[in-house]
Amino acid sequence: MIEALVHAFYGKVRRDPALGPIFDRVIGDGWDEHLARMCDFWSSVLLMTGRFKGAPMAAHIQVGGIRGTHFAHWLHLFGQTADEVCPPPAAALFKVRAEMIAQSLQLGIAASRGEAA
After folding, report:
1. SS (H, E, C) 80-103
2. Superfamily of segment(s) 2-112
3. Between 20 and 30 A from 80 (CA), which of 24, 70, 74, 102?
4. Who's near 12: CB < 8 A, 6+ residues apart?
């Protein structure tokens, strides 16, 4: 289910006029690797597998140009995709965790810029 959600979601992200260019700028030709990392990430977040080894905050801080509207749009697409791909209880869990992660990243990015979130 994680793999299906990750691949469906990032397929939408790549086609999205607001998010696609940001992800393409950062990921370039590394989409296969990114998708595998995101599957590991969600496996670690939801199933506590420990498969993900990385620093999401540092990675997002380095991107530059990410605004709150991007996070809101990301959450909308993610929630929509979770509802399409997952049974309702799983979709709800994915969405709650995604909201917590987005909030944490937004706060961390704002703090790194010396801004109030």
Report:
1. HHHHHHCCHHHHHHHHHHHHHHHH
2. Globins (1.10.490.10)
3. 24
4. 77, 80, 81
Q: Which residue has the tokens 């309702």?
A: 88
Cα distances (angstroms) measured from residue 25 to each of 32, 63, 110, 115: 15, 9, 21, 24
Residue type, 84: E
d(CA 54, CA 116): 26
In the chain, where the domains are located: 2-112
Q: Distance (Å, rounded) from C-alpha 35 to C-alpha 42?
A: 11
